[in-house]
Design a protein that fits this description.
Radius of gyration: 22 Å
GO biological process, one term: protein ubiquitination
Number of strands: 8
Distance between the termini: 41 Å
Organism: Desmophyllum pertusum
Oligomer: single chain
Helix content: 55-70%
Pathway: Protein modification; protein ubiquitination
InterPro entries: UBR1-like
Structural class: mainly alpha
Family: Belongs to the E3 ubiquitin-protein ligase UBR1-like family.
Shape: globular
Strand content: 5-15%
Length: 387
């Protein structure tokens, strides 16, 4: 099945570029591939996911280095797809729709099988399988960076790094479920630094887009940011990126880590107190620098406070999500925990919210809803300060 996926996307492969640098890496072209646009890959991926639900087959797959290498090679083709370039002088005439393809492709063809691998490892309780998958991810990332051989460029961004997110997910699994020391599964410092640069580049680009620096790219670039942080995607994208940055922070030299973050946000002159050196047009970028500083500091707070993959229990995750939703407005009974099937749902909900019955009036009819208690409001203040 993995071979069929290779054959399906091979005609859509193009050379990956960073700026004017041509690499040896091939990446899928999301704008012209009918196989990707029409989701022709999904029947194969769906069957692959169903097969991985069988413990014997999943164990055989994760104990075979050749099969792991083939899967990681497929994920490599998706890593770096749909690169966006910032428009500086003129507004984009026709907004590209390639992100309509790129986000579902990563979610369906890369992330869905990833979580199937994670579930299989959890059920099998096999440490060797987890270590094999981590080794496969590290080898694939080393190949990817050797082929790309260039740093991320200012004015360009791709939100799609599924290979990096595979590594983050398996490291999280190894530490949380198998008590494997983090030192045994973390790659070399050189690889961590390269990973760190790419992940910071995404976070800096998001801050630039929110600050209005990418306004000439149209609404589609803001839509990509919304998808990246949206609840259906963030579990497989943003959350894993933040965790991998936290891992980088633990093992890289603090000066290297902070300097990399500051350089990614283009704020080195802010913290060296020298003359500002910014890209053109100067007046446009200088006016948004305060927003960039705020965004960088908020990212730093998030890295220091987020515990989603750092020991937070399922009940605590459910509790935080309920608080965040209830404090934005009253919700119907099923909304505060619609993404969870937790047995603690009712108890947690009754602790955080009170019930308000439906009201019938001549001019309107309102549904029954849950509204937050005072305790919930205090917790939301803490969450707001952290996120």
């Amino acid at each position: 099945m993995v071979k069929v996926l290779h054959d399906m996307i091979r005609p859509s492969l193009v050379t990956f570029r960073r700026g004017d640098t041509i690499s040896n890496h091939d990446v899928v072209n999301c704008s012209d591939s009918r196989a990707l646009i029409n989701h022709c890959y999904w029947p194969i991926v769906s069957d692959f996911i169903n097969i991985l639900s069988h413990k014997t087959i999943a164990k055989m797959f994760m104990q075979n280095p050749d099969l792991i290498k083939q899967w990681m090679k497929f994920v490599e083709y998706l890593t770096g797809m749909n690169v966006n370039s910032r428009k500086l002088l003129t507004h984009v005439e026709f907004e590209p729709k390639s992100y309509y393809t790129a986000f579902p492709v990563e979610l369906e063809a890369a992330s869905s099988p990833l979580w199937s691998f994670i579930n299989a490892c959890t059920v099998l309780k096999n440490v060797q399988c987890v270590q094999n998958m981590i080794s496969g991810c590290v080898e694939a990332l080393e190949r990817w960076y050797k082929k790309v051989d260039s740093k991320p460029q200012r004015g360009e961004v791709t939100f799609h790094l599924p290979l990096h997110r595979h590594l983050a997910a398996f490291i999280s699994l190894a530490v949380s479920q198998f008590d494997i020391p983090l030192e045994q599964v973390v790659p070399s410092n050189d690889l961590l630094r390269s990973i760190c640069e790419d992940l910071f580049h995404i976070q800096a680009a998001i801050c630039e887009i929110r600050a209005g620096r990418w306004v000439r790219n149209g609404s589609q670039i803001r839509s990509q940011v919304r998808l990246y942080v949206e609840c259906h995607f963030c579990n497989s994208m943003q959350d894993l990126d933040i965790f991998l940055l936290q891992v980088c922070a633990m093992f890289l030299d603090p000066d290297v880590f902070i300097t990399t973050m500051i350089e990614s946000f283009g704020l080195l002159h802010w913290f060296k107190f020298g003359l500002p050196v910014v890209s053109s047009p100067p007046s446009f970028d200088v006016s948004t620098e305060v927003s960039m500083v705020e965004g960088m500091l908020m990212l730093l707070i998030t890295l220091l406070s987020s515990r989603l993959h750092l020991g937070l229990s399922e009940q605590e995750i459910l509790r935080q999500e309920m608080v965040a939703q209830l404090c934005m407005g009253d919700k119907t009974h099923n909304k505060p925990g619609q993404s969870h099937n937790s047995q603690e749902f009712e108890g947690t909900l009754s602790e955080l919210a009170d019930y308000r019955g439906p009201s019938l009036r001549v001019d309107q009819c309102s549904k029954a809803s849950m509204f937050p208690k005072i305790l919930c409001g205090r917790m939301n203040l803490i969450l707001f300060m952290c996120y």
